[in-house]
């Protein structure tokens, strides 16, 4: 039983990861910024675990002209489950630290990595649909043009410059994934040496 226990550092970092994931529920996860000559101060939209904030209503108004769908938080099924998913992972991290079990560390690491991959794939699909599924009767139609914002980084869309990157909550989620992977690797190596 003793050989399945975690190091003190692993337990502390697991507890920190749990607390950090709980915090991420209440902070913006992703940011999308738009800049254009007619909006030199820029427009910002922030995706949280359960809502959209920022100037997305202005963005909706602009996107209407090129046939993009409007953004409404109540249309996203992800907002209904994401706070609970993050809360569940926070509890799993705290449970692994409290029960002092290496197997729980491996479990939470694997599940969180799968969750992260699924989260990013879903976000990419949403951006793809948002930028490609256009109203053919829009006021401005540019044949062959799509308006998919970047998942990460910069993209020029007509006269708009668009930046997309993690905000506080997203940085927390990425940091937790990295920490969990490092802890799982170190604990696995420790167990192998002890065997």
From TrEMBL:
Provide the alphabetized UniProt keywords: Membrane, Transmembrane, Transmembrane helix
Record field: transmembrane: 12-33, 81-99, 104-127, 168-186
Protein name, entry field:
Copper chaperone NosL
Q: Source species, please?
A: Chryseobacterium suipulveris
């Amino acid at each position: 039983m003793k050989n399945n226990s975690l190091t003190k550092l692993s337990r502390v970092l697991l507890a920190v990861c749990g607390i950090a994931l709980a915090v991420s529920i209440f902070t913006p996860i992703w940011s999308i910024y738009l800049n254009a000559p007619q909006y030199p101060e820029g427009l910002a939209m922030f995706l949280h675990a359960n809502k959209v904030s920022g100037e997305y209503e202005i963005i909706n108004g602009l996107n209407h002209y090129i046939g993009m769908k409007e953004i409404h938080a109540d249309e996203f099924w992800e907002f209904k489950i994401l706070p609970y998913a993050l809360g569940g992972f926070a509890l799993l991290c705290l449970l692994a630290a409290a029960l002092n079990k290496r197997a729980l560390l491996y479990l939470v690491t694997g599940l969180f990595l799968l969750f992260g991959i699924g989260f990013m794939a879903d976000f990419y699909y949403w951006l793809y649909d948002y930028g490609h599924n256009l109203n053919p009767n829009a006021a401005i139609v540019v044949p062959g043009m799509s308006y998919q914002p970047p998942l990460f980084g910069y993209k020029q869309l007509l006269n708009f410059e668009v930046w997309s990157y993690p905000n506080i909550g997203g940085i927390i989620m990425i940091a937790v994934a990295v920490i969990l992977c490092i802890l799982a690797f170190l604990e696995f190596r420790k167990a192998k040496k002890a065997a």
